[in-house]
Amino acid sequence: MGYVSGVFGIRGWLRVHADTEFDDSLFDYPVWWLGRNGEWREYRLEEGAAQNKGITAKLEGVDDRDVAFGLRGCQVAVPRAQLPAPADGEYYWNDLVGLAVFNRAGESLGQVESLFETGASAVIVVRDTDTKHLIPFVGVYVLDVDLPGKRLTVDWERDY
């Protein structure tokens, strides 16, 4: 859902970069999980505020700048059961990671390694053993998403 990008003030507030459509939609979730390197811890959201450059949040038990600073770089997640079902043609990024990617000719391009936002569109990072493809996640290039089949079909050539 995002990550802790820094601290805000001296009372334990965090600066958070949200990877959600609307930054402040993270405030809809009363429980956040913060983690890195596979270790996660649950926190209750006490308060939040939208700022010009993202959001700030005060979590229960994080009461000073030093504790907040120790959380810098942590990923922010919420329990999957709390998320609404995506609309038709929309996907949660974590559902796309790991999908096998094939072009129209049936050639394997690799697997979805990650996604990132550019402002104009999301971009999928597809990697095989020796090649990385950056493919805009838009209908002109992404032809079919088959989550049950764990497959993504794109209009993209191996040598792009």
Automatic annotation (TrEMBL):
GO cellular component: cytoplasm; ribosome
Keywords per UniProt: Chaperone, Cytoplasm, Ribosome biogenesis, rRNA processing
HAMAP family in the cross-refs: Ribosome_mat_RimM
Gene: rimM
Source domain of life: Bacteria
One of the GO biological process terms: rRNA processing
NCBIfam families on file: 16S_RimM (TIGR02273)
Species name: Microvirgula aerodenitrificans
Molecular function GO terms recorded: ribosome binding
Key word Cytoplasm present: yes
The record's note on its domains: The PRC barrel domain binds ribosomal protein uS19.
Cellular localization per UniProt: Cytoplasm
Entry function: An accessory protein needed during the final step in the assembly of 30S ribosomal subunit, possibly for assembly of the head region. Essential for efficient processing of 16S rRNA. May be needed both before and after RbfA during the maturation of 16S rRNA. It has affinity for free ribosomal 30S subunits but not for 70S ribosomes.
Family, per entry: Belongs to the RimM family.
Ranges for domain Ribosome maturation factor RimM PRC barrel: 93-158
First-listed, main subcellular location of the protein, grouped into a coarse class: cytoplasm
Subunit structure: Binds ribosomal protein uS19.
UniProt name for this protein: Ribosome maturation factor RimM
Domain RimM N-terminal: 1-82
